[in-house]
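Weekly puzzle thread! Below is a chain. First person to post its structure in token form gets bragging rights.
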Amino acid sequence: MEIEVININCPNCGVLFCIAKGHKDQLKDTGDTFYCPNGHSQIFGNSSQMEIKKLKKSLKYDQEYQQRLRDSVTGLEYQNRALKGHQTRLKNKLNQL
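Winning reply:
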């Protein structure tokens, strides 16, 4: 059984190392990080996959931010109702005097 290998030079340290072609293809498809023998992280950028990952991350962040804003608005609405109730009680006390 033959395994086709691909030579890669680390852009950080220049070390030459090899990985299996099938593994390289998988890394390109997933956009996962891999490391040179000296520990430098690298990515084969399939630009569309990387863009999808970036957009999904951005969407998740935006959705979480919107939820925090909704929660904040809800809290402020409760506060507003409580203040209106307090204001009404004070007005009623003044009217009784």
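Puzzle host: Confirmed. Bonus trivia for everyone else. The two ends are 99 Å apart (CA to CA).
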